[in-house]
Structures are given as C-alpha cells and as structure tokens.
Amino acid sequence: MPTTVLIVEDEPDLVHVMELTLKRAGFGVVAAATGGEGRTMLAQHEVHVVVMDRGLPDMDGLEATQLLRGDGYDGAIIVVSGHVGGDHVAASLEAGADEVLSKPFKLAELVELVHHVVAPVAEVG
Fold this sequence. Notes:
Blueprint: E1 4-8, H1 12-24, E2 28-32, H2 35-44, E3 49-53, H3 61-70, E4 76-81, H4 86-95, E5 99-102, H5 107-124
Parallel strand pairs: 1-2, 1-3, 3-4, 4-5
Helix pairs in contact: 1-5, 2-3
C-alpha cells in the first residue's frame, strides 16, 4: 500500500499539479479544499502525510493543523505558505507542523520533503 498524502489546498490548479507530481513519485493522493474537508478526509482515509496550505477559505492553515493534532492525527504535516520569515516558521511548528515549505516552491522540493517526513515512519514501521 503506497504512502498516502492529503493535500489541503483551495487553488484547484495547484492541487492538480501537486497531485500529478506526487502520484508520479509513487504516492497515493487525496485532496480537500478546506480545513473542514481535510478533517473529514482524515476520518475516511489512512493518511500518512498532510500538505496543508496556510491560506484556506474556512480557517487559517495553522488553526487546521492544530485541529488535526487535537483530533489525534500523529502523521506528518507540511505547512505550505506564501508567508516568509522566521516567525512564520516558528508559528507553523508551534501549531504542530513537522516541516514548512514556502511558496513559490519547486515540485521536486515537495516530493523531497514528503520523502523526508515519511522516512522516519518507514524506519519505525
């Protein structure tokens, strides 16, 4: 069973290219356009990594990250954001993110980061 990535992103074009890229890299992919939909998808699918946009229409991605952690999700979360600077990274990590990826990013960076956060899980399992 492949590692499954949940993309929580409200820009359909970006979801499409991330989904294609991650599938080509061998990952399973599910997607949600809001933080609320992301929580629903986690309840319906076995998800190993969440790629969480910071700017969602229903809530801030950091709030969504905190909710996922509060729901008991212990998989990796990568926050993707157009915000820059150390404060942004610190706030993302405090909210429960494992990694932060700043927009714009190269799709190869996303794949590399997903591999990076999955590797410790694979070593334990």
